């Protein structure tokens, strides 16, 4: 992978992180669901001189009681909450992180 491709990927990841951070902190609950935990694989490559080595390693994503919500401006957000809090929140309720 060339340096320009690495830079493009880094910029893309940074943009996604910024977009996620810019979501609303509160709004009307539009959806609620349980998301089971799952595992994906991440490939990591390193180059030392002319030698390049790659490894695959598991990335575990924890189970989540997910609340999705929309603010008055139409921006959407989501949050993982405890099972007890999830049980108290219904679609249409106001949600505050």
Describe the structure in your own words.
The N and C termini lie far apart (40 Å). The protein is 26% helix and 49% strand. The strands form two sheets. The chain has a four-stranded antiparallel sheet. It has a two-stranded antiparallel sheet with strand order 2-3. By secondary structure, the protein is of the alpha+beta class. A hairpin with a 5-residue loop joins β4 and β5. The longest helix is centred in the first third of the chain and has 19 residues, at 3-21. The mean pLDDT is 87. It contains two helices and six strands, in the order αβββββαβ.
Topology record:
Blueprint: H1 3-21, E1 26-35, E2 38-48, E3 51-61, E4 64-70, E5 76-81, H2 83-88, E6 94-96
Search tags:
alpha+beta; 2 helices; four-stranded antiparallel sheet; 97 residues
Number of helices: 2
| Side-by-side strand order of the widest sheet | 5-4-1-6
Q: Which word captures the global form?
A: elongated
Q: Could you give the count of β-strands? A: 6
CA radius of gyration: 19 Å
In short:
By secondary structure, the protein is of the alpha+beta class. It has helices spanning 3-21, 83-88, and strands at residues 26-35, 38-48, 51-61, 64-70, 76-81, 94-96.
